[in-house]
Amino acid sequence: PLNTEHIKRMSRGFAMIQFSKGNRPDIKSGYTLDDNARALIALSQMYAERKDVSCETYIETYLNFICHCLQTDGSFLNYVHKDILFTSQNEETGLEDSNGRAIMALGYFISHAGKFPDAWTLDAIRMIKQTFPMITRLQSPRSMAFVIKGLYSYWRKYPSPEICSLIKLLADKLINYYRQNNENKWSWFEAYLTYDNSVLPESLLYAFMATGDTIYKETAKESFDFLLEKTFTGEQIKVVSNQGWLQKEREGQKFGEQPIDVAGTVIALHTFYTVFKDEAYLAKQKTAFNWFLGNNHLHQIIYNPATGGCYDGLEENNINLNQGAESAVCYLMARLTMD
Predict the structure, then answer these.
(1) Rounded to whole angstroms, how far apart are CA atoms 165 and 162?
(2) How much is the pLDDT for 210?
(3) Partners of residue 26 on adjacent β-strands
(4) Distances in Å between the alpha carbon of 270 and those of 208, 254, 284, 286, 334?
(5) Of 10, 20, 120, residue with least CA distance to 66
(6) Could you tell me the domains of the chain?
(7) Is the dihedral of CA 150, 152, 153, 158 positive or negative?
(8) Of 112, 184, 178, which is closest to residue 145 (Cα–Cα)?
């Protein structure tokens, strides 16, 4: 059974808290746009697909928090202190990826228009439209990928040439990055593999579905198959280590795996199977999901059925037993994709 208790326990009237100590929410860690954007997607999906009405108040909370982070220039701030003020971390860290995630969440939410109060949908549409000028300035490949996914969801519900041309603009930039880096058996968009890698090829599949341009489809498959080759060994998934990541033409570290990467792979494999109908993607999806259930190098369960939370990481000899927002929501998103 699907358990959203930990996600709800991590959520306050204002937003979802970032970290936990064990399974106890750590209010001192404050809030992030990243976590609340992901939570909006996961609980909207629970509500829309599972008719779980208990999610409704939380969905409104996450939507309001995204609105709180939206700035007048159409960009978002990511880090919010427990006292509701924006923290200085917003000046020190690149925020493009969290901006992309917010747009992905808004687009996903809009795609379920009719299932939620109209006022909420209109709010989400107002916010996403406000971001259009900012979208054209994005440089980070991941942020572009998140935005393509969000715009695709929006476009499917409310088709328009404007959204389609934004999707095309971003997809062309990704193709450009790919051409600059694709050499010597390194079929990727950057000179390194970091976190949440699967969303890059996956977004190009969405661009293909919106535009029909086969270059997006071909590049999506080529780059995704390259990534799968790097992350699946035998009957296990082993995602890129967060200790130094994986640099082109170098050996990466073996340990330091996070739920976000496994969940992203599960979700992307589902998208690839939907387009290509290749059973190998389906088999890999099951293998990847089973990482949460013990199919990993420590043979330890990463999901916590007692709390509905998910442990924050798999290290060389131990599990990080904290159950933060990112892990719990990523697990739920992966689990929903398995159905």
Answers:
(1) 5
(2) 98
(3) 19
(4) 16, 26, 10, 10, 10
(5) 120
(6) 1-137 (1.50.10.20), 234-339 (no CATH)
(7) positive
(8) 178
DSSP sequence for 142-179: HHHHHHHHHHHHHHHHS--HHHHHHHHHHHHHHHHHHH
Per-residue pLDDT of 102-145, as tens digits, reads 999 999 999 999 999 999 999 999 999 999 999 999 999 999 99
Residue that has been written with the tokens 């996956």 in this structure? 202
pTM: 0.98
Tokens of 68: 């709180």
Check if the beta carbon of residue 43 is closer than 8 Å to that of residue 7.
yes
Cα angle at 4 between 319 and 26, to 5 degrees? 55
Written as one letter, the residue type at 14 is: F
| Cβ(11)–Cβ(21) below 8 Å | no
Question: What single-letter DSSP state applies at residue 4?
Answer: -
The angle subtended at Cα 130 by Cα 143 and Cα 177, nearest 5°, is: 25
Residue 249 has pLDDT above 90, yes or no: no
20 neighbors 309 (Cβ within 8 angstroms): yes
Rounded Cα–Cα distance for residues 133 and 74 (Å)? 7
Query: What does the DSSP 8-state code read for residue 250?
Result: S
Confidence of residue 236 (pLDDT cuts 50, 70, 90): very high
What CA–CA distance (Å, rounded) separates 332 from 309? 9
Helix (H, G, I), strand (E, B) or coil at 24: strand
287 HSE (CA, 13 A, CB side):
18
Measure the CA–CA gap between 25 and 204, rounded to whole angstroms.
36
Tell me the average pLDDT across 305-326: 97
CB atoms within 10 A of CB 228: 20
Mean pLDDT value across residues 313-319? 97
Nearest by Cα to 60 from 93, 36, 96, 84: 36
